[in-house]
Amino acid sequence: MPASITPEAIAASLPALWSPRVIGEVDDAYVKVARIKGTLAWHSHDAEDELFFVLRGSLRIELEDDVVELQAGQMWVVPKGVRHNPVADEECLVLLIERKTTLHTGNVVTEKTRSIAEQLMDAPEAG
C-alpha cells in the first residue's frame, strides 16, 4: 500500500527557511512545502501562476497596489506576471503548487534563491 505523507510535518522539519522542497508531482506541476519567516523578494513569474496554501501561521503577499492576507487553511493564486513579495512576520508553513518550470524567485536572484535541483533534494521524513 502506498504511504501517505503529512505536508505540514514535512514543512516543519525543514532545516532552512525559504528553502522549498518538492514533496509530490501532479502532471506538469510540483507540490512543494516550505518553512518561511521574514521576507523573500519582490519578483514575478512571467509564464506561471503560483498557488500558496498556508498550513500553519499567517502569510502576507504584498502586491504592487494591494495586499493579500492568508491564515492557516487559506490559499491564494498569484497570477502569472504579477509582481509579489511573500512576507511572514512569524514562522509560517506553506504548501505551494507550481509548474515544473517555475523559478523560485522568478526573474530575480537573491541569496535566498533555490534552484530546482535544491528543491528536489530529499525532504526530511515526517509521517
Descriptive account of the structure:
- By secondary structure, the protein is mainly beta.
- The chain contains 2 helices and 7 strands, in the order αβββββββα.
- Strands 1, 2, 3, 4, 5, 6 and 7 form a 7-stranded antiparallel sheet that branches.
- A hairpin with a 2-residue loop joins strand 1 and strand 2.
- It starts with 6 loop residues before the first helix and ends in an 8-residue tail after the last helix.
- The mean pLDDT is 91.
What is the number of independent domains? Answer: 1
Termini gap: 15 Å
> Rough shape?
globular
Radius of gyration: 14 Å
Helix count?
Answer: 2
Please give the CATH class.
Mainly Beta
Helical proportion?
Answer: under 10%
Number of strands: 7
* SSE arrangement, N to C: HEEEEEEEH
Percentage of β-strand residues: 35-45%
Query: Quick check: average pLDDT?
Result: 91
Q: Structural class, please?
A: mainly beta
Secondary structure elements and their pairing?
Blueprint: H1 7-13, E1 21-26, E2 29-39, E3 50-56, E4 58-63, E5 67-71, E6 75-78, E7 84-99, H2 116-119
